[in-house]
Amino acid sequence: MSSKLTPLETIQHARRRIAQIAAWTKDDSEASYLANEERQAAVERNFIAIGEAVKDLGKVHDLAALDPSGPWRHPARFRDFLAHKYDEGVSHPEVWGTIKKDLPELDEAFARVELLIARGSL
After folding, report:
1. Domain membership of residue 15 as a residue range
2. Of 23, 34, 59, 94, which has the maximum CB count within 10 A?
């Protein structure tokens, strides 16, 4: 892995990023999130790190085989979109929707894979 983290450490790092996003936005409404550019930038930076973690893990493990129900393609694509589309602008309402709808599902998928790795099942 390019980051020199083990797969387990990579998952734990990504899950901490997910927890940060959840903590930063737990008291937000969509309107308050959209009005806070600093929070948007911080959240987007964390999404980029999460997507990078998925890419790194995918180099070591077949995530779709480990957890077929996990949303493994979406975080990497979202990372690429956020990292490369600033000229065209990021849809902050779309990011808000991802926070509320997709992030909990991704955390659950990471938890399942984390458990497999921690148990030495791989």
Report:
1. 7-118
2. 34
Say if residue 22's pLDDT is above 70: yes
Residue tagged active-site, from 17, 73, 79, 92: 79
74: in domain: yes
Q: Is 121 exposed, middle or buried (0-12, 13-18, 19+ CB in 10 A)?
A: exposed
Report yes or no on 107 lying in a domain.
yes
Question: Does residue 1 form part of some domain?
Answer: no
User: Is 39 labeled as catalytic in the residue annotation?
Assistant: no
Task: Clarify whether 84 is annotated catalytic.
Answer: yes
**How do residues 73-112 score in pLDDT, each as one tens digit?**
899 998 988 888 765 678 899 999 999 999 999 999 999 9
Domain for residue 40, yes or no?
Answer: yes
pTM greater than 0.85 (yes/no): yes
Any idea which of 34-48, 55-69, 86-100 has the lowest mean pLDDT? 86-100
Exactly one of 84, 92, 112, 119 is catalytic; which is it? 84
2: number of Cβ within 10 Å: 8
